Amino acid sequence: MRVGIERLGVTVRAPTGRDGEISIRPAQRADLLAIVSIEKQSFPQPWPYDAFETFLEEPAFLVAECNGAVAGYVVADVTQTVGRRLGHVKDIAVHPDRRGEGVGSALLSRSLSVLAAYGADTVKLEVRRSNERAKRLYREFGFDSLRLVPGYYQDDEDAIVMIRQLNS
After folding, report:
1. In 33-158, at which residue ranges do the beta strands (DSSP E only) sit?
2. pLDDT tens sequence across 12-42
3. What is the pLDDT of residue 14?
4. How far apart are CA 55 and CA 138, in angstroms?
5. Which of 4, 51, 65, 74 could staple 107 via S-S, CB 3.0–4.6 A?
């Protein structure tokens, strides 16, 4: 199922209203340097530039813009598994200066909508066991812990696989 990507962009109000609106749109090649910068500021083992480049055609690779600058991003896709379409949120991060403003919530909300539009009935993600802030956000969006994956990350930290059913 293909949905026009231009129709999937949305603009939502930032909860704080500090800088007006958060615009959510598909990621573009021109966004990659800003995305990689946010990635490096957010994670101890950041994805390299070329990893993001491989996801540019994915409809759920989205960026949030505030005042014309990339404030955050989400990388997600849909794969066919055993007769079902599984959405996978692979990476999500918000610029440190924009955290707590609702950017992550806006990105996650929109990515779930896009994944559903592309036929996903279930969405999964992995989160560091120590990342309480992210786990809280995912629980607010209806994700439940499914299992622990010991040593999932390069630094040997465990991951928690979380899953959420989407309404069909």
Report:
1. 60-66, 69-81, 84-94, 122-128, 144-149
2. 444 444 556 899 999 999 999 999 999 999 9
3. 42
4. 22
5. 74
Q: What is the pLDDT of residues 109-130, one digit of tens each?
A: 999 999 999 999 999 999 999 9
What ranges do the domains of the chain cover?
Answer: 5-165
Residue 7 near residue 56, CB atoms below 8 Å: no
- Please identify which residue in the block is written with the tokens 């962009």: 9
151: region left, alpha or beta (phi > 0 left; psi from -120 to 50 alpha): left
Statement: residue 61 has pLDDT above 90: yes
Of 3.40.309.10, 3.30.390.10, 3.40.350.10, 3.40.630.30, the CATH number of 5-165 is: 3.40.630.30
Residue 136 has, within 13 A of its CA and on its CB side, a CA count of 5
Which residues is 128 bridged to in the sheet?
Answer: 159
Can you read off the two tokens belonging to residue 150?
Answer: 């010991």
Q: Tokens in use for 59?
A: 């409809």
